[in-house]
Amino acid sequence: MVKEKTKEKFYFNIFRICMLFTIFILGFILLYVIINGYKVINFRFLTTMWNHQDITQGGIFPAIFGSILLGIGISIISIPIGICTAIYISEYAKENYFTNMVKISIRNLAGVPSVVYGLFGLAFFVFLLNLGTSLIAASLTLGCMTLPWIITSSEESIKSVPNSFREASIALGATKWQTIKKVVVPSSLGGMLTGSILGISRAVGETAPIIMVGATFYISYLPTSPTDKFMALPYHLFILATQHSSPDAKAYALGTALVLISLTFIMNLGIFIIRYKLRKKKEW
User: Fold this and answer.
1) Which of 240, 191, 199, 187 is nearest to 217 (CA)?
2) pLDDT by position in tens, the chain (length 284)
3) How far is the C-alpha of 121 from the C-alpha of 215, rounded, in Å?
4) What pTM value is reported for the model?
5) Closest CA to 215 of 79, 127, 124, 121
6) How far apart are CA 46 and CA 207, in angstroms?
7) Would you kindly state where each structural domain of the chain is located, as residue ranges?
8) Can you give the pLDDT at residue 199?
9) Dihedral sign from CA coordinates of 97, 103, 107, 108
10) Per-residue pLDDT, 284
11) Residue 226 and residue 206 in contact, taking contact as beta carbons nearer than 8 Å
């Protein structure tokens, strides 16, 4: 008995060390970005157009605006398709070899490198469908990349709804679709939204795919059409950090990184608040 308790304590200490190490790395990165990036952040930096000749006289508003449009486009494309696919797989599809292969393929697609999705988007959306390098091509590409995450998280959320809820609904005379619409989806909506926003937050922060399908470092206008090119925070950050010749580029790169982290944090915080309110309404 003493030996088992010693082993348990040993493993708990390992887990605790791993947790503390992870928190330390995350905290170090955040502190480094905050300490070195907040100096350049001001009203002009956030609200004015980019000045390519003198970066200290311009702002990153076009990149913020482009990233927001990209996030909206990804959401419109991936969330409805992903949730509907998860509902079909969980509630309608029969358990057979084909269904299992589809599930395995979806989970494997979640691990495909983002640059591969960028190449797919370049070949299919940009060239084959002749959409050109544009906001819509980037939204479709990142929407495809986000789909596996949304489908998987939504499927797991639907599976977490007790079968007794379905049985009770059907016993009261509801059809299968009415049960899904009135019982299953409302009960699993918090998990669906959480998985969706986490996937979209990650997609908005990707650089490799959007380089190929529509993002540009500098444009003198804001995109007004889905077929326009656009600026985006991750690509803007990449150019400032690696290729820009200005001596102020590093500071502005860290400022851009801080803005990108803040936008991601706001998105995640918003969805966690919504999930908390939805869970408070549950009675199980």
Assistant:
1) 240
2) 557 788 888 889 999 999 999 999 999 999 999 998 888 888 888 988 988 778 888 889 999 999 999 999 999 999 999 999 999 999 998 888 888 898 899 989 988 999 999 999 999 999 999 999 999 999 999 999 999 999 999 999 998 888 888 889 999 888 899 999 998 998 888 888 888 888 888 888 888 899 999 888 888 888 988 999 999 999 999 988 888 888 888 889 999 999 999 988 888 888 778 777 777 766 55
3) 13
4) 0.87
5) 121
6) 21
7) 2-38, 41-281
8) 87
9) positive
10) 57
11) no
182, 210 Cβ separation under 8 angstroms: no
Q: Which of 188, 191, 168 is nearest to 179 (CA)?
A: 168
Q: Which homologous superfamily does the CATH classification assign to the domain defined by 41-281? A: MetI-like (1.10.3720.10)
How is residue 21 written in tokens?
A: 């190490």
Side-chain half-sphere CA neighbours of 189 within 13 A: 17
- Residue type for position 181: K
Q: How many CB atoms lie within 10 A of CB 200?
A: 25
Angle at 110 between CA 106 and CA 115, to 5 degrees: 125
C-alpha 214/C-alpha 178 separation (Å) is 42
Cα distances (Å, whole numbers) of residue 265 to 49, 75, 101, 191:
24, 17, 35, 18
Q: Compute CA distances 103 → 149, 155, 249, whole Å.
A: 12, 10, 45
The pLDDT assigned to 36 comes to: 87
Q: Amino acid letter at 127?
A: F
Task: Please report, as a single letter, which amino acid is at residue 178.
Answer: Q
Contacts of 216 (CB under 8 A, 6+ apart): 229, 230, 231, 235
Token pair, residue 24, equals: 């330390």
Maximum separation of any 2 CA atoms in the chain, in Å: 72
Tokens for 39, please give them. Answer: 């100096």
Cβ atoms 239, 249 nearer than 8 A: no
